[in-house]
């Protein structure tokens, strides 16, 4: 899977079988494999059975997702701490950056034709906004590596080509 090219590839016994645009579905007999990604990594890799049952497939050894899963198994406290920090960072990002973004958008010509511009109650210096953006990107990677996704919390990591 190369989420930057928005394509997923299916391999069987180490041999390439097919490639599809994301989100992708690959037939495997009567079942199928469903794959989707965010900007930061994988969101879903599931085997969906013909009867509707499904299970997440384990990440392939050597992938970042496999490494992150192994870290959580070997050091559960570290894994949980990273997950909690990612949620805190993304929630803070929503609270602090969303009003500023809305203010910027409200000053556009398209908005001005329909409503008065808004003023954000939050005005952070450029270095703070940069730090928030960088930590948000790291939090997005953490959430992608652990296959976690919430539509509101992960709004800036939205699904690729969905």
Short description:
With 162 residues, this protein is α+β, with helices and mostly antiparallel strands. Helices cover 41% and strands 23% of the residues. Keywords: Membrane, Transmembrane, Transmembrane helix.
Structural overview:
The protein has two domains: 7-60, no CATH class; 70-157, no CATH class. It is 41% helix and 23% strand. The chain is built from four helices and six strands, in the order ββββββαααα. Helix 2 (76-106) crosses helix 4. The model has no long low-confidence stretch (mean pLDDT 84).
List keywords for this structure.
single chain, 162 residues, alpha+beta, 2 domains, 4-stranded antiparallel sheet, two-stranded antiparallel ribbon, globular
Describe the SSE topology.
Layout: E1 7-12, E2 15-21, E3 24-28, E4 31-38, E5 41-48, E6 54-56, H1 64-74, H2 76-106, H3 109-112, H4 126-145
Antiparallel strand pairs: 1-2, 3-4, 4-5, 5-6
